[in-house]
Amino acid sequence: MAASAASVDRSTVEVLPAARLEGELRLPGDKSVSHRALMLALLADGESRIRGAGDGADVRSTAGIVRSLGASLVRMPGTDEAGNVDYVVRSVGAAGIRQPDGALDCGNSGTSLRLFAGILAGQPVEATLDGDASLRSRPMARIIEPLRAMGASVEGSEGGRPPLRVTGRTPLDPIDWTTPVPSAQVKSAILLAGLSAAGTTVVRESVATRDHTERMLRARGVAVRSRDDGGGGGMVEIDGGATLRAIDVDVPGDPSAAAFWLVAGAIHPAAALRVRHVSGNPTRRAIFDMLRRMGVQIDETPVDTPVPGEPVADLAVRSGELTALELEPVETAMAIDEIPVLCLAATQARGRSVIRGADELRHKESDRIAGIVDGLGALGAKIAAQGDDIVVDGPTLLRGTVVDSLGDHRLALTFAIAGLVAAGRTTIIAADAVGISYPTFFADLERIRS
Ligand code: S3P
Predict the structure, then answer these.
(1) Where in the chain are the domains?
(2) Helix 409-421 and helix 255-267, axial crossing angle in degrees, nearest 10
(3) Which of 336, 359, 408 to mutate to test the pocket of ligand 1 (most atoms within 8 A of CB)?
């Protein structure tokens, strides 16, 4: 078979169908954990070693900002077998944060921008957080409002978009805030600001979003109390004034990256894939169980880790028959980053899949509802947006054509997996977007295909 993933120019990649998918994959270090490990190393007093951080452009943006804010950050030479990197960060804690010289460039990364806004809101600095065209189009009122309620000055451009000018205040006022949309970034921004508040800050959410910030603050000696409300949501409380202990972190593999291979293994007719060392954090693993509901056989073997943190597992997946899946809005929120690739799985599943309440996807790195409907539709899928729902009828035979990632990593990754099962050639425009979260993706794809 001809070269499977040929780079046509810098950013266009062609994928041909694979006869077989077989082998073992090590993944990028979890992006959410990598960001937080770097940020909390800045806030901690002492030396933090971060092993196996993802080396995508988003995490690099965070590393650059940690350095701009005054920490000594050393990126160790070389990468591990998965292309991940180690960092050693030395800091004197939040008190050492210095006034940055220019705008802090978050690139494409919403997590960097929103979480640093929370950190800087409680520091005696004035800083501008900015990013690329995609990030400049994303909504920030959801963090501007709570941070202002805490006493920081936060100014966005028109419609509350980046760049954001943050003028911090110390101490901040504690707040009791109910998030308007389920968002771990909003929750985390408020909790990080809450570290600098004079009292206890409370965040309430209708869907319990990923809890890395809470776990990682606790591991550094901060009292963070969480309670679920018995209905899928919950509240988190943090006391202001705590100091963070510097610790070492082993970053687990990213379950959102694993999802691409799990779907590849499930929909390809001749596949047997193992994905090693994946975070099985309960707030991230919904996608595994959704695929199982569709009939996908995923074997999970827990792995002991030397440094306690996230639960970690090895996963194995093989080809199988898929049936359609219906998701309620709460479930959609629990797998928000995996919905594009779940739509691809649905194109190969028998029956009508309905993903309800997907509106938040319009506010990601691109309008992911439009992007996935257009892209998978062009490949021959029966997929439509109905209000905030996505409806997919399957199974359909996909046929390769030209699809546009819109510069969105999760769309580029989804279309590349689609190309492994589509007849003929799938040409992905702006495929270099995979470098945001998964720079070694096309090399991995070449390795496991035949
Ligand atoms: C993230 C939270 C989610 C997710 C993003 C990473 C995080 O965003 O989509 O990829 O690390 O906190 P929202 O908080 O906007 O839902």
Answers:
(1) 3-28+253-448, 31-250
(2) 20
(3) 336
- Average pLDDT estimate for 361-376: 98
Region class of 325: left (phi > 0), else alpha (psi between -120 and 50), else beta:
beta
Nearest CA to ligand 1 atom 9: 337
- In the residue annotation, 45 being an active-site residue is answered as no
Give the distance from CA 308 to its chain's centroid: 21
Query: Of the residues 35, 58, 111, 341, which should be mutated to test ligand 1's pocket, given the most ligand atoms within 8 Å of the CB?
Result: 111
Two structure tokens written together for 233: 């949501």
Please give the pLDDT value at position 310: 84
- Chain-centroid distance of CA 122 in Å reads 25
- Report how far ligand 1's centroid is from the alpha carbon of 85 (Å): 22
Residue 1, pLDDT above cutoff 90: no
Using CB distances shorter than 6 Å, the residues near ligand 1 are: 32, 110-111, 183-185, 188, 210, 336-337
Instruction: Identify the pLDDT of residue 7.
Output: 59
The Å distance, Cα 321 to ligand 1 centre, comes to 31
Distance CA 219, CA 420 (A): 41
CB 97 within 8 A of CB 123: yes
Mean pLDDT for 2-9 is 54
Q: How confident is the model at residue 300 (pLDDT cuts 50, 70, 90)?
A: very high
Which atom belonging to ligand 1 lies closest to the Cα atom of 35? Answer: 11
Q: Select the CATH number that applies to the domain covering 3-28+253-448 from these four: 3.65.10.10, 3.40.30.10, 1.50.10.10, 3.40.50.2000.
A: 3.65.10.10
pLDDT of 386 over the 80 cut: yes
31-250: CATH number: 3.65.10.10
Question: What angle is formed at CA 318 by the lines to CA 338 and CA 433, rounded to 5 degrees?
Answer: 35
Sheet with strand 153-157: strands edge to edge: 104-105, 126-130, 161-167, 153-157
* Residue 110 Cα to ligand 1 middle (Å): 8
Pairing of strands 200-205, 176-178: parallel
d(CA 417, CA 415): 5
Region 155-170: mean pLDDT is 96
